[in-house]
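Message: Just now I want nothing more than another pair of eyes on a protein record. I am handing you a single protein, as its sequence and its fold in token form. As I understand it, each token names a local backbone shape. Take your time, and here it is.
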Amino acid sequence: MGYTKRFDGRKSFDELRPISAKAGVVLRANGSAMFQIGKTVALAAVYGPRELHPKSMQNPKTGILRCFYEMMPFSGSGERVRPGPNRRAKEISMVTEKALLPVLDLKDYPNSVVDIFINFPQTDAGSRCAGICAASIALADAGIPMKDLVCAVAVGKVDDKVVVDLNYDEEAYEDGPVADIPMALVPSTGEISLLQMDGEISKDDLIKALEMGKKSLVKIYELQQKALKEKYKPIEGNGE
């Protein structure tokens, strides 16, 4: 019979869950952002550039980027998340760094570090992509030199259907094969800075999924830009 209707009521297989974003949500951070897609909420806070310690880790030619991904214990749709570092969090922290680095220029900040802390008060799949979207806004909010923003979404296949933005129920679908493919894009160049896959999918369906993802990322990119413009728009009546 196949997968005929999305669990959360979306009308099409290329439809995103409701999305929202806001810049400047953590007052004591140099830059911060909230990005929500469906029930997944990512909070990103940027600290730096600041001197890196110990000095043995410093790079005299450029600053470095560090990302820290963490889900709160009761944030997940599945089982309770164990607090503290784990292999999955370390892996996602690493791929988040690699997804963001193509748009960053830290050469003016030698021997320094920019730290990004990404936390999730609640999740329903797509957390690494939501984290990348939030982190990208937060970096721009911090005034870090960037060539562009980075936007991300998960695409894939649920049984016989190619879909965009899988939720937890779709990732856990048991009546057929599931492929989950997080992807991140630099819109100005079309460069894909993250592409991972869990599951199996044919070459033709993969190409179709990526094209569907790129179209959806246009909407996410516009929302990221809007969040930054909203924070820095002129205040009416200030005489300027």
Remarks:
- The chain has four helices and nine strands.
- The chain has a mean pLDDT of 92.
